[in-house]
């Protein structure tokens, strides 16, 4: 028998039907769409497993240096279509299902999103996995298998409601449970000095033990035999757990206590904004970190008998500081469990880790109370003190007794409420490299966020501009555009080498190509029109300009500025004569995104969007000239419909606040024009596709601090004041509820400088309308956006990480014969 599963239509069909009967125990002649989806998914999974096993076997044989990408978040979205494309078996599955009476397109929608992330940071991790697999890197992802991912958002009467995301309730065909791969994880207890072989050692004793159990998720690459792994940990009670209570006779209490263990991996924290000192979150972080480091050490020791080669075999990337307890955890395991000296353990540890910062906002940096760490992880707190002591002594050697410098750089911060551990400083000291996620952001890390560390160790600082996978975000979600591009570029190699898109420049002004380009956009807009009607009940015209802002709701991202310009447009329409109205460009403004459950202002902003939409969409004077809709429950799957349909997208954060942004890259790739500020990766997008092909406005990041300090004296444009008064006066009802929103941008407040940027923003918006009237010009700009987006492939980002930070190389197994 052939070792490999066969992929002809008959074999595929047989495999699907077998899964219906033997995996799902349904009648092979009678099953519904959901069962058909599941059976197809299980059948694809068989093929993934084959490729996964062979890849992992090859990695074991070759034993290359590997990278482990540790992240508290992976925003994966759906897997079926992605796997079919990557394994190059979509036509066979489409046909096999068709013959059985099912449509692949319908089944695809039956899959629940894997939404184990908040937003940009989690989605970046998922794009990175795709790029690592596609480029054959010996890489694994590590994270948590949350029982409940990002909450499902509904919006009733403009108010956000959060619902649990029961994504695992009907099973998850994409994961493989590995009950025999599990590690003990301890919390609480204390540290005891013990004498072992005449040496005094510290032992972490007592406390509570739980287990971390592995769930593997195969990640196939595109057009390669490589399939890498995302290992997610799930918390289970440990077998040894609380024997004491069983013995003392309270059997039922003991069982209940065991159940509590499972809460550790139960829910993703839905806040990407403020660090909250929640004990459960700390336990989640340590849970993930400890299981992962134990797993990495076990794998390393299979073919090594000392730790000397560890840094040559292992690179660990920390996705922000969230997994930075990995540093004291590796030290603890090396010293306490494997008997290495402190010096040797530090020498090894300091060569293994690197970390990425994703924020510009100083108060978003994680800081854990020393008290809490001492209680939950007493041995780690000791180790952190040791690291800090060593760091400060080295510093005093170099710089003398500069106590102000010690205070600024210390891992421990002393506040009136007690001591805090600055996780970014721990990461900075324990890592060999730190990187920002866009050029401007990486500069701010050096100059504004960590100037002392930059001065002490400039060689640690790097930039790695973010990217996105063009497979999911262009080739698979916009197949018509993919085919058109391939027809001009002589095949689909650009799906691996995105820089090839440059060649599209040649066709930017070609009328025939332009017509094809526009026809595809129109079809995509029609699909989005359907989604909008389904989700909001509002009917919009596919002939209007589709203007989109989808991202988490944050004051710094300035959805509010967008709404103000919608109100401005509404007022203009109302004041216009019928002749003037005929000259106006019809617009559909789409806003979507989740507000953190505790972020009151963000929730009020959603309410304002809906209130303005309510008024505008039902005003007969306005008709199709303007619609404003809020799409609820924005997630990866809805993004896959929204992005290909967008003509204009908004990335309008106050300069110096968005670390990078990644959706701007997805939009640009799909020929969407960007209206935006010179912030985050917009700056680099402007370099690549040309400012003249974008609508750039607003203050730059150098001016922002000055404008901010002068804002009490700044006189907002009268228009701006007028809009504030309109809202306060109840033009959109809900005046009392919306007043705080007005207060935040008015009367000397306005931290994010909406009033300062308002006029220039309106100017840019007017230019959008003017440009859109010239469809040939607009289409040229649209084609140039796609042509210039090659840099923003996560393949490029990952190549840079592999070369400049991890020191790893591709390890591609030979194609199966
Ligand atoms: C500590 C906890 C509250 C927390 C949890 C999640 C803090 C932050 C986050 C997530 C942050 C995040 O998503 N940042 C975004 O990362 C993207 C990828 O680098 C950037 O493009 C984007 O600008 C940044 O806001």
Automatic annotation (TrEMBL):
Keywords: Allosteric enzyme, Carbohydrate metabolism, Glycosyltransferase, Phosphoprotein, Pyridoxal phosphate, Transferase
A biological process term (GO) from this entry: glycogen catabolic process
A cellular component term, taken from the record's GO annotations: cytoplasm
GO molecular function annotation: glycogen phosphorylase activity; pyridoxal phosphate binding
Cofactor(s) named in the record: pyridoxal 5'-phosphate
Pfam families membership: Phosphorylase
PANTHER family: ALPHA-1,4 GLUCAN PHOSPHORYLASE, GLYCOGEN PHOSPHORYLASE
Function: Allosteric enzyme that catalyzes the rate-limiting step in glycogen catabolism, the phosphorolytic cleavage of glycogen to produce glucose-1-phosphate, and plays a central role in maintaining cellular and organismal glucose homeostasis.
Family, similarity comment: Belongs to the glycogen phosphorylase family.
Name this protein carries in UniProt: Alpha-1,4 glucan phosphorylase
